[in-house]
Amino acid sequence: MPTLNIGTIIAGAYADKVRRTLFAITKSLQETGQLKNEDVAYAAALLNQTLYKIIVEKLKCDKGDVVRIMIDFDVKDGKIEWRYDTLKIEWYVKKDQSIVDQAIKEVLETQK
Q1: Which of 94, 19, 83, 84 is nearest to 54 (CA)?
Q2: How far apart are alpha carbons 55 and 89 in whole angstroms?
Q3: pLDDT tens, residue by residue, 47-88
Q4: What's the pTM?
């Protein structure tokens, strides 16, 4: 079974990355006629709807935070079937730059 893994990306851009990655990994199936472009786009839209509910509505993830999304899927009868039980979302929270700058300053001062 294939796996969609979009890598790390800012949360504000995950939907486009899901769509582009899905089209890329199913390209050979599209070329052989096992999948139609419309079916790939529809499957990406279904997954993106679910991800929106999780990432934006439930987690209240900021657009600048970084996420990594992985999910397995099957191709049956010319359709992509998501295996939602395998869905994994890693969320990396962006910190305020002043906190990072302060930590750098403190560590560098102790090293002098």
Answers
A1: 84
A2: 9
A3: 999 999 999 999 999 999 999 999 999 999 999 999 999 999
A4: 0.85
Q: What is the DSSP string of the chain?
A: --EEEEEEEEGGGHHHHHHHHHHHHTHHHHHTTSS-HHHHHHHHHHHHHHHHIIIIIIS---TTSEEEEEEEEEEETTEEEEEEEEEEEEEEPPPPHHHHHHHHHHHHHHH-
Picking from 60, 59, 67, the residue whose alpha carbon sits closest to that of residue 15 is: 67
